[in-house]
Amino acid sequence: MRNLIFFMHTSLDGFVAGLKGEMNWIHVDEEIFDFVATVTDKADTALYGRVTYEMMQSYWPTAAEQPNASKHDKEHSAWYKKVSKIVLSKTISEKGLENTIVISDQLADNINKIKKQDGKNILIFGSPSASHSLMSHGLIDEFWLFVNPVLLGKGMPLFKDVTETTKLKLIETKTFSRGVIALHYGTKRNS
Fold it and tell me: Is the dihedral of CA 189, 181, 23, 29 positive or negative?
């Protein structure tokens, strides 16, 4: 069975974005990008909410072709173009989308069917609203939380409307030179 792995940057006080969606406090650099590439290499599917998907589609397909493309831009663009994509949305259609499945209802049933198919891991990057829905159905198998050394005080919470206890097992940690700490947890059912 494939694992659904959640990737998210968070502030130390548990916010994934400011009140207006600001993410300018997130620290990323080549060290973090190189580390994340070791995880994306083990995945063949990316899952997004509609907003994040549209943002990704507007950048990644051609990112490697830009004159100032970084090593990460080239590598992630190649990965993005080859992987299957799943979009959670009630407002867009699969029509005209390449290598993309749109899930608009029966979230748990549809995701569980995909997880049972042959393949590598499924990664969800960001997509806070979609992630909240996946968490509420107990569909996430692993969490990679990149804790940034900043306190926001208010904003969009990492975990929202959690109604039951979910026990996690710490699998590993990674500290980066600029103060970001990556915490890798597995769910109890996946430990």
Answer: negative
